[in-house]
Amino acid sequence: MTLIDPRVSKQAEVIVDYCVKFQKGERAMLRFGFLGLPLLYEVYRLLLQRGAAEVVFQPELGEEDLLEIFLRNTTSEQRQTLPRIYDFAIHNVDCFIILDTPRNTHYASGLDPDHMSEYFKTLKPITDYRVRHTRWLVTQFPTEALAQDADMSLSDYENFLFSAINDVDWPALAEQQETLRKRVDATKQVRILGEGTDLIFSISGRAAESAAGKVNMPDGEVFTSVVENSANGHIQYTFPAIHYGKEFHGVTLEFEDGKVVKATASKGEEELNKILDQDEGARRIGEFGIGNNFAITKFAKNILFDEKIGGTIHLALGQGYEETKSENKSTLHWDMIKDLRTNGELWLDDELVQKNGQWLIKL
């Protein structure tokens, strides 16, 4: 083995000891891409040192070439067949850690979206079980593909990624966000104002959650669900909406009684609407999130970072989270980000709580 960058060792410590709080005698599954072997080795080493009873490795879905081969060479019957070994494994582990290391973030651009939707619908029971019954985490390791998407050199992207993970006082951020979570939890109505945007919806009776590094790393958001028939108005998204590597520019959505009745885009409009037509829930909001990591300031075409940018909000069309009391069901969960740092306002009930990306309330 080659020498390990100490920043990688630190990231592994954050993952094992803070994020999943791994305990002696537990079992873990590691999903990985081959470019992330340095991080895989360090996480594996720590899991063993913490007394793991078993560690299972799953490269199949963590390596995009294998998934592309599967989707291009299978019948509908194969795509609808539940993978039993994967299903058995997820029912027998305590922690599920995804080390995402793409070599090509646009690998899915030429794939049939119907094939992808069909397969991910098949995997949904496994995904649901993983979310509800394991301590799971998604993190990334710097790759050339991620750096190129972010318009950075690899060394600059390494600094960007490791700083966002290793240089944050996660317990302190968690404490701050608990204050915000309580404020959102007490809110009945949200209004978002900005360029091309005036959208109102209800979150009354829903449950807010704080994300401070227990599921995603990096992290930094407070999110909840939206009353399914309540959204009215329009929103123009600042950044490209990205769906499995495909970019949709200038996305504008118009809502009536909770449903997207008009979806336009300067790039990708036809496919945008096809994605939103995949099932009934895809045109309704499953999640409303507030980015609160002010250490992340740059849009990187990477949802793991972008939805956490301090001074932004995001709305996810499709599947909502059970813990937020969402009633929306869909095979889609598509986060789209609105930047409020320029001429933006966030209102919780009748109070302006954030203007131009700056908090007006004490957290």
Note down, in words, how this protein is organized.
Helix content is 32%, strand content 27%. It has an 8-stranded antiparallel β-sheet with strand order 14-13-10-6-5-18-19-20. It has a 5-stranded parallel β-sheet with strand order 2-1-3-4-8, sandwiched between helices. The termini are far apart. A hairpin with a 2-residue loop joins strand 18 (345-348) and strand 19 (351-355). With 363 residues, it is an alpha+beta fold. It is globular, with a radius of gyration of 20 Å. The chain folds into 2 domains: 6-166, Thermophilic metalloprotease (M29) (Thermophilic metalloprotease-like), CATH 3.40.1830.10; 170-359, no CATH class. The chain has helices spanning 6-19, 37-49, 64-72, 76-79, 84-90, 113-133, 144-149, 154-166, 170-185, 269-276, 303-306; strands at residues 27-32, 54-58, 95-100, 135-140, 189-194, 197-202, 209-211, 216-217, 221-224, 232-236, 241-243, 246-248, 252-256, 259-264, 285-291, 312-318, 333-339, 345-348, 351-355, 358-359.
Question: What would a concise description of this structure say?
Answer:
With 363 residues, this protein is α+β, with helices and mostly antiparallel strands. The protein contains eleven helices and 20 strands. The mean pLDDT is 93.
Keywords:
363 residues, alpha+beta, Thermophilic metalloprotease-like, eight-stranded antiparallel beta sheet, five-stranded parallel beta sheet, 11 helices, 20 strands
